[in-house]
Write a structure and sequence with these properties.
Elements (H helix, E strand, L loop, with lengths): L1 H17 L5 E3 L3 H8 L7 E3 L5 H5 L13 H8 L5 H5 L3 H8 L2 H10 L18 E10 L2 H26 L1 E12 L4 E8 L9 H15 L7 E13 L9 H5 L7 H29 L3 H10 L14 E3 L6 E3 L3 H17 L4 H4 L4 H17 L2 H6 L1 H9 L27
Parallel strand pairs: 1-2
Antiparallel strand pairs: 3-6, 4-5, 4-6, 7-8
Helix pairs in contact: 6-7, 8-9
Length: 419
Amino acid sequence: MLAAELAAKIRQEVFDTLKYTCSAGISYNKMLAKLASGLNKPNQQTIITPRYCISSLRPIEIKKVRNFGGKISTALKERGIETLGKLQELNLRDLAAIVKDEDVAKWIFFRCRGFDDEAVEAKKTENKTILSHKSFSSIFDMKKLMGMVELVIADLNSRLTAFYEETGYVPQTLTLQYFDRTSKLQKSKSSPINLFVPKPQFKLVILSKCTELIKSVEKVLFPCTLISITARNFCKSDLQNYKCDLATFFKKKESASAGAATAENSNSLHGALSYKSDMSTSMNAIGPSHNDLRMEEEKREPTTELPEDQELTFIKCEKCDETIPSNEIESHRDFHLAEELDREINPHKRKYNSKRNFTEFETENSQLCKDSNTQNPKDVESGPNTKMMKSSVGKGSIKPGTNESRFKIKPIDSYFKRG
């Protein structure tokens, strides 16, 4: 049989490489192959064919069959049934009377005769656990215990590293098993662990997490005689696609050529000149020309930083009457210039209208109303200035020279109706 030849080659390769002997089972389903692997130990392989299946199963104990332990094994043992041969003598009615379930009785009836439809599936890496355990004589202080913990972590790290190199999976949870001296019970404590780091850093991260777990149970741990650490909840890590850490990622690459840098700088300069050209065109359309502003800037004195030994002087601004340090006066004047340009472009902004005198506002408003008598009302309303002014007339504005409003304001109590 081809399967028997393959099993023999695998066993021989294991022995040649690791110097270990092993047994193997070959059959036509998963259950029988597992049973056959333990029939002729050590260093043997066993084949169960369909023709000799029932006779081969008769001497096997019931508890050795997968999923026949627990309640099924106990119920059958109470009636003196301990081997598959005795179990094969029972019919479906007898089995149903023992297990109290017809479906379970049918499952036992066919399974003890070698029928099994369980598929052979690849082992799920997500459910894998890697354990490292060490027992020792009683330890009463943390320093000696951490020496033992380092041995456990070294073993766990080597196995995790080998598994990562083979599959690319890393654990997400680390569990510490310990004996609670207060409650006299075996307990465990878990914590998430981040191993999405370069492989050389695995041991450092595991040691840090284990130290944190041990210190959290230090009060109930001593005297300590065993330490067990389990890694579980494996997931795929794609860190192997990255060849650098975070610091290297943000480090400027020295391998960039000088020609590429020059080309990039020239492109940036061209973009800046193009942006200046566009800005000058737009400024000609909405306000003073770019040349006028440039001439005005050239008339000003250049801004220079004050030496350390020179005292700081203050200058009073002629537009806002604020006192400004002499080294900041140029930027302050630029602010006023920008504000004036914005006022010309957007004259209807609230911040500009609120600074105007009320008498000046009413005079301009009344003049607009007089002009509206001689103009088409639609033309007046369509103007950008009159739309804002019109909304201010007759809507609660204050009369000139008085403190009275056009509307009478009711007391606040009048807005609440009493039941």
